[in-house]
Design brief:
Shape of chain B: globular
Helix content of chain B: under 10%
Largest sheet of chain B: 7 strands, mixed
Number of strands of chain A: 11
Order of helices and strands of chain B: EEEEEEEEEEE
Structural class of chain A: mainly beta
Distance between the termini of chain B: 31 Å
Largest interface: A-B, 28 and 28 residues
Strand content of chain A: over 45%
Low-confidence stretches of chain A: none
Oligomer: heterodimer
Largest sheet of chain A: 6 strands, mixed
Strand content of chain B: over 45%
Mean pLDDT of chain A: 94
Number of helices of chain B: 0
Shape of chain A: globular
Radius of gyration of chain A: 13 Å
């Protein structure tokens, strides 16, 4: 049973466009929702994270939108650049020993 | 760099070999994790250690054996692996497991079982 569903699986956007990656979760006990960015040959790097007491969080060009009632959250990348081309993973956690539950990832390509 | 290092970066081993993966974190964290990343599958949590004590074994086969001698070091001992165990093995650390603290990942060890 996949607890965090991520879409789309792959995404191609022109430079300057706004790619949007969506995630949905099932477990209402989750209280921490991070996004990770992974480049080939590297481990996932924490990009931005949100807790359910806010509906939006911005850090630089990256924004998380959170809809608690719908159990969905999304990542928006403003003014996307070719250097943003990577695989993006959403995740969720309820703390404790369960660690992070990850989505399957989105392979993003930003075309020049 | 995230402050989490892993060695080796690449490993090829036969099914009868015994090898170990090493992880070291320089962040002063108390929790360390092993994850498995396979193609087309989500990252899978394997083991969790908090203050050197194992708190989670996520139904991992016994051919994977973790060891955490202190809060800064984590090992994954491998023996009689199967080809389907070929994957990227990632180590992560966090402040501890009480609450949803940020996890920081190492670069991973790319394991190929022949």
């Amino acid at each position: 049973q996949q607890q965090v569903k991520q879409s789309p699986q792959s995404l191609i956007v022109q430079k300057g466009g706004i790619p949007i990656i969506n995630c949905a979760y099932e477990n209402t006990a989750f209280d921490y929702f991070p996004w990770y960015q992974q480049f080939p040959g590297k481990g996932p790097a924490l990009l931005i994270a949100i807790r359910p007491d806010v509906s939006e969080k911005k850090e630089g060009r990256f924004t998380i939108s959170f809809n608690k009632s719908a159990k969905q959250f999304s990542l928006h990348i403003m003014d996307s650049q070719p250097g943003d081309s990577a695989t993006y993973f959403c995740a969720a956690s309820k703390g404790g020993a369960d660690g992070l539950t990850f989505g399957k990832g989105t392979h993003l390509i930003i075309q020049p | 760099e995230t402050g989490v290092t892993q060695t080796p970066r690449h490993l090829v081993m036969g099914m009868t070999n015994k090898k170990s993966l090493k992880c070291e974190q320089h962040l002063g964290h108390n929790a360390m994790y092993w994850y498995k990343q396979s193609a087309k599958k989500p990252l899978e949590l394997m083991f969790v250690y908090n203050f050197k004590e194992q708190t989670e074994n996520n139904s991992v086969p016994s051919r994977f054996s973790p060891e955490c001698p202190n809060s800064s070091h984590l090992f994954l001992h491998l023996h009689t692996l199967q080809p389907e165990d070929s994957a990227l093995y990632l180590c992560a650390s966090s402040q501890d497991i009480s609450g949803s603290y940020e996890q920081y990942f190492g670069p991973g060890t790319r394991l190929t079982v022949t």
